[in-house]
Design a protein that fits this description.
- By secondary structure, the chain is an alpha/beta fold.
- The chain has 3 domains: 2-108 and 253-318, 3-Layer(bba) Sandwich (FAD/NAD(P)-binding domain); 109-251, 3-Layer(bba) Sandwich (FAD/NAD(P)-binding domain); 331-390, no CATH class.
- The chain has helices spanning 11-23, 132-144, 164-179, 200-212, 256-260, 300-318, 373-390, and strands spanning 2-7, 29-35, 39-41, 60-62, 72-75, 78-82, 87-90, 95-97, 100-103, 107-109, 126-127, 148-154, 185-190, 215-218, 223-227, 232-235, 240-242, 245-249, 252-254, 285-287, 331-338, 341-347, 356-360, 364-368.
- α1 packs parallel to α6.
- The protein is globular, with a radius of gyration of 21 Å.
- It starts with a strand and ends in a 20-residue tail after the last helix.
């Protein structure tokens, strides 16, 4: 028997395991999935926990709930990828040989990479919401907070779910308005980008929305240090931003095993062919989701689209046929904007987010790059889609891996 080994049972790894389980000849192939964690989190839901919209139970399931029995699941830490021997060493000493390796080890925040962030005040007046623990702690802090200077700060790009910091800021505006203390809160959004978002056309719209909501935007801020004692951010060009409460999106980095195995760049992301999802260094290694170094968004929708194309390419690789160069960087993201409304953006490597209708070109019912109630409802409905459709590697009706230009004002 041959082994196809998948590292990481997050969104990308789970989708791939389910898709390949239906496509591979199981008389010839064993599919093994390795991850050290027992719980699977709906990470887009972390955003809602600080505002008491979701609980931990709403975003937590067992990883094995989404895996068919035919998949060999090993819950263990991954120690080393030995590419020269086509094998992976686990923390418990077990060795797994493979013919094909799929890396889906994701990305995590690394607060220690931001100078001073962990020195004084972390967990007291400085928090994250990209971890389940951080989101819970921030919920407790916001519950009793009476107001002051709240700063949302992105340390550097790329980050997982690049719209989430904006969503947090918009929801904070709504949350404090609902509590009757919005006039007592000074909201500031600090980013290393030149605007609110990575894509100029969407950034212009979102910059304007920040202004409408009386949120101060501080662009081009390259963090040097967080002075927890003085409660201020300091940039390399000596700009300073003071805070009473800091919501930090620290540096995002790939898994430590990627660094230990010599497979990644300076942020531990794996160099990947942008259209085939094959490793640039090893032809029998494929990469998807947040583990790649691709210029596509690190988001669940991207992992879903990548998995569709990667499944075909793995089958072609097994047959020793040319791979399809079909992944176009497609991403679509809901952006919660508060007060029961939201945005939806749809874009790829080459096409900016634009106005239009989605998923049907004339009737939608969702509007692209425009704020609407329907987009908010779509954001909430996505949790059900995530648990019941996306993770199981099933097609989402009317939404294709390759971005459609129908209905878009390009």
């Amino acid at each position: 028997m041959k082994r196809l080994l998948i590292l990481g049972a997050g969104t990308a790894g789970t989708i791939m395991a389910n898709r390949l389980n239906r496509k591979l000849d199981r008389r010839e192939w064993i599919i093994t999935l390795v991850d050290q964690h027992s719980q699977h989190y709906y990470q887009p839901g972390f955003l809602f926990i600080p505002f008491e919209m979701y609980t931990v139970a709403d975003v937590t399931r067992a990883r094995t709930d989404f895996l068919p029995k035919q998949i060999e699941y090993i819950q263990e830490e991954i120690e080393l990828i030995e590419t020269d021997k086509n094998r992976v060493k686990l923390h418990n000493g077990e060795i797994l040989e493979y013919q094909i390796l799929v890396i889906a080890t994701g990305t995590d925040i690394v607060p220690a990479e931001v100078g001073g962030l962990l020195d004084n005040g972390w967990g007291e007046n400085a928090f994250d919401f990209y971890t389940i623990e951080g989101a819970q702690a921030l919920a407790q802090r916001l519950k009793d907070w009476k107001g002051g200077k709240l700063v949302v700060h992105i340390a550097e790009m790329p980050i997982k779910c690049p719209v989430a910091p904006l969503e947090f800021t918009f929801l904070a505006d709504w949350y404090f308005t609902r509590k009757g203390i919005r006039d007592d809160v000074e909201l500031t959004y600090v980013t290393p980008l030149s605007g609110a978002f990575t894509r100029p056309r969407a950034s212009a719209v979102l910059d304007h929305l920040l202004e409408q909501k009386n949120v101060k935007l501080v662009p081009d801020f390259n963090i040097m240090t967080v002075d927890g004692t003085a409660q201020k951010l300091v940039s390399y060009d000596e700009k300073k931003v003071e805070y009473d409460l800091l919501v930090s999106i620290p540096t995002n980095m790939g898994a430590g095993v990627i660094e230990r195995s010599g497979l990644g760049d300076e942020l531990n992301f794996v160099p990947t062919q942008k259209h085939t999802l094959q490793s640039k260094a090893y032809e029998n290694i494929f990469v998807l989701g947040d583990a790649t170094d691709l210029p596509s968004s690190k988001a669940g929708s991207v992992a879903h689209f990548q998995a569709e194309i990667l499944t075909e390419n793995i089958l072609l690789f097994i047959k020793n046929r040319p791979l399809k160069e079909e992944f176009d960087g497609h991403a679509n993201c809901f952006i919660e904007s508060g007060f029961g409304k939201g945005f939806l953006i749809d874009f790829n490597y080459d096409i900016e987010p634009v106005e239009g209708k989605f998923p049907l070109p004339v009737i939608g019912p969702m509007a692209l790059l425009q704020e609407s109630r329907m987009n908010h409802l779509g954001k909430l409905a996505f949790k059900w889609i995530y648990w019941h459709v996306l993770l199981r590697g099933l097609p989402i009706p009317l939404v294709t891996a390759k971005m459609s230009t129908l209905g878009k004002k390009i």
